[in-house]
Amino acid sequence: MEFSDYFHGYALNAVDAKGRVSLPASFRTIVEKRVHPGLAASDYPAADRFVLVGPHDHLDCLVGFDPTYSRHLDAALEKRMSADEGFDELRDWDKAAGNSFGYAAPANYDDAGRMVLTSINRGMAEITNLAYFLSTGRSFQIWSPANYRKFVADQPRVLKMFDMMLAEKGVKP
User: Fold this and answer.
1) Among 38, 108, 128, 166, whose Cα sits 20 to 30 Å from the Cα of 157?
2) In what helix (H) or strand (E) does residue 13 lie, and over which residues does it extend?
3) Partners of 132 in beta bridges
4) Distances from the Cα of 45 to the Cαs of 32, 56, 100, 108, 111, in angstroms?
5) Are 15 and 122 a contacting pair, CB within 8 Å?
6) Domain 10-168 falls in which CATH fold?
7) What is this structure's pTM?
8) Separation CA 68–CA 50 (nearest Å)
9) Are 48 and 35 in contact (CB under 8 A)?
10) CA dist., res. 56 & res. 41, Å (int)
11) Taking Cα atoms as reference points, which of 55, 32, 43 lies closest to residue 113?
């Protein structure tokens, strides 16, 4: 699957006790362009205002994506499974597909971008009062600040920039 619109940028947003957080505006724009290309933002159907969010397969964060990304996930799984000579179609496909699709929960967002991260997702990523949104092109990640700092500990420039973002929010690293 080929993508013409990619997620770019980052945001550090507050999370309230119920798990409400704002999906960055630039991320919402990409979701809406991918799902309904050519449709004006004011005409975007409320029922289609959602992203899928679930635990990342390999990192201590969440991964988020729009519904069209599911086709890419399916194709990537198919390619990975067909390259595996010891592949047991039922067992291995169900396991891999369950991890990719089963734990990705829809998170509806309103006109202002407010959405709710489930308590399970917040717990899996250790997100409490802040969520760090980081684009990865085709999808995006949602990190707790502590987990992200650990992840980039070997990248001093990235860590410095992230710590500056935390300081802007009045948070000490």
Assistant:
1) 128
2) strand 10-14
3) 12, 143
4) 9, 28, 26, 12, 11
5) yes
6) Chemotaxis protein chec (3.40.1550)
7) 0.87
8) 11
9) yes
10) 29
11) 32
Query: Residue type for 14, please?
Result: A
In DSSP notation, 97-165 reads: HIIIIIT-EEEE--TT-EEE--HHHHHHHT-SSEEEEEE-BSSEEEE-HHHHHHHTTT-HHHHHHHHHH
Dihedral sign (CA 6, 102, 115, 21): negative
| Overall residue count recorded for the chain in this entry | 173
**In this predicted model, what pLDDT tens digit does every residue of 110-168 receive, in sequence order?**
989 999 999 999 999 999 999 999 999 999 999 999 999 999 999 999 999 999 999 99
Residues 6+ apart with CB under 8 A from 44: 32, 36
Which residue type is seen at 26? S
How far is it, in rounded angstroms, from Cα 104 to Cα 91?
20
CA gap 119, 126 in Å, rounded: 10
- Integer angstrom CA distances of residue 30 from 20, 35, 51: 20, 9, 11
